[in-house]
Each structure stands twice: as C-alpha cells, then as structure tokens.
Design a protein that fits this description.
The protein has 14 helices and 13 strands. It has about 375 residues and is of the alpha/beta class. Strands 11-6-5-12-13 form a 5-stranded parallel sheet, sandwiched between helices. Strands 8-9-7-10 form a 4-stranded antiparallel sheet, with helices on both faces. A two-stranded antiparallel sheet has the order 1-2. The protein is globular.
Amino acid sequence: MRTLHNLHHHRSLILRTSLSTMSAASLAVSPISLNFSGLRNGTARPVLGVRNLSRSRVSMSVSVGSSPTVTDDALFADYKPTNAFLFPGQGAQALGMGKEAQSVPAAAELYKKANDILGFDLLDVCINGPKEKLDSTVISQPALYVTSLAAVELLRARDGGQQIIDSVDVTCGLSLGEYTALAFAGSFSFEDGLKLVKLRGEAMQEAADAAKGAMVSVIGLDSDKVQQLCDAANEEVDDKDKVQIANYLCTGNYAVSGGVKGVEALEAKAKSFKARMTVRLAVAGAFHTRFMDPAVSRLEAKLAATQIRTPRIPVISNVDAQPHSDPEVIKKILARQVTSPVQWETTVKTLLSKGLKKSYELGPGKVIAGIVKRMDRSAEIENIGA
C-alpha cells in the first residue's frame, strides 16, 4: 500500500498533466511503425502496426498524387542522444507563466509576435487569466507553445545557456509539445508553428463539442490490466461510447478516452480491477482517439500549405516514438497525432536506453521531470521555466 502522502502526490501529478497524458494500450512491445494506407481526400492515413525492435531503418509509403512512392525516412534512425530538450503539453499551463520571460527581449518579442497571429493579448491571459480561459483548448495550446519557446530564449540569455542549447542533439514534446520541439529543431518557423497550433486547438475543440467524450486517468495498474478494464467497460456500452487507452504516461499511469458512458462504466469497475484510483480529467473531450477524427482534415489542409523542413536534430514522434526526417512524413504524422495514442513512455525509455545523459524541460511546471524521475530516479533533468 502506498502512503497517503504518495496518493496525494499521484493525484497532484495527474491533475497537473490533464491533457498532457494521451497514449497506447501496451508499450511493453516494440515501437510502432506507420504504414500509410486508406486514402481519404487524396491523402494517406497511417495504420498502426508493430515494428521489430531490431530494425534500424525506417521506410514509409507516402502518397504523392495518385501513385504511392517509398521514401527513405531514416536519416535519424541510428541517433545516439546525449542532451535532450523536452517540451510539455496541455495541462502544464499555469497562471503567471510568461511573466519571467519579459525580462529577456528575445523572449518578450515572441509574445508580441503571437498577438498579431492570434488576435488577442496572449501574455495578459497567461499572467492574469482567468484560469478557465487559459485552460481552454484554444488558448492553452498556443500559450504553451509560445511560453516553452520563450523558455529557450531565457536559457540562451543566461551564462552558458547557448552552449547548452548547442549541445542538444534530440528533442521531443508531449502531444502539443511535439510542435514546440519541431519549431526548436527548425522544421518550421515560430510563426508557422503558432498558426498550426492555433488551428489545432480550434479543430480539437470543435471535434470535442461535436461528440460527448471524456478522459480519465487510471492509477496503479499495468498496461494489460488497464486494457482488460477497458474491455470490461466496453461490454456494457454502445460503439459510440467505447473507451480506449489514449496515453501511457509512465508505469502505472494511463489516460483512457472515450464516450462519457464508457468512461463512467470504467470508473465503476476500476476498484474491482484493483486500480489504486481513477481521476476524471478536466479536458474538453476524448483526445487522441477517433473522437478527434473531424479535426484531421482541417489539420491536413493546413499542414499541406505549411513549409516544413527536415529537422536539424531528431524530433521523436508521439505517434510511433521514432524520429522522422522526411517533411511529407512529418506532415502525415502530425495530422494523425490528434487521433493516435501518444507513445510517451516508449519515447523516454528509448532515450534513456540509448544513453541520454541530461534532459531539460522547457516551459511551465515540472510534469515531464516528474515522469522522467518516476521512470529512472537517477536520470538528470532540469526545468527551465518562463
């Protein structure tokens, strides 16, 4: 039995992460590869499939016009990480974020640029709220993107900061944070990335409004048990309310998404499966599931019109826990990311197993640091706030 203190710690971690937590049913198996098939509106949609751990090269079938071609996407397949930048996702936002950034001109300038793109005073919402407004999907996603990149500028301005930035040889982000990581890695400009994030938040909110979905964190079970719990809940509800594991945050902490009735059925059964607790997440809907399908076509169109370049360092995808170098593949993956489980534990475990020496969490809160430490207490990670 865990102590009451530990239970409070777990509850606090869960509530802080909320939307940051979206991933897959069983990550004890090898990473997941993408096979683009099933054309819709002239674009390919990925189908998940297990990929052999021993394979070091990644090839993807990408639809180009009417004839698919095979593109080598393996530039970073054999990456060896030393220092990593990790960017938080929705749920890490907090009132007051961005205030510290105003002491560094380059960081403050990002908020000014953001105002022109977003059409409102982002910094004012970040600092003064109200909290309900900051927590909304359409606000929190741009706010985290801008504040996390402002944290990079704060680091750059401190003694030795540029040397740290130059030493980073891999980056990734939790859900929304993947866009921040791609911007840091030079795949797209700050402005283009913010426009993508703005549309992503709007599209996800609209998809959530169109269907009654919910998310709940299940604490204290392994992946197989959580899957069994989902299966049991699904036996009692219609297809439209079925649930699935949407995020594997770290050992013993899963987020499950689905219809409200399915989530309620899961909560009712959790104790009988010996879950330590369940916590309903304060999010707009069932993110990283089929409930977000309406958001995909809008993202596909926006991504198609956005210039995306090969990142200068590996950026690990949430969809398959692998780095990708082909801009067209990156576009396809980002479009599907909102409906695909987030492979966060696999990502962090892979980085650690490949010899990662130090990580930096850039942005508000210490959610990611807590996750990394739960996976490996000896891991070295530093938070750079803004």
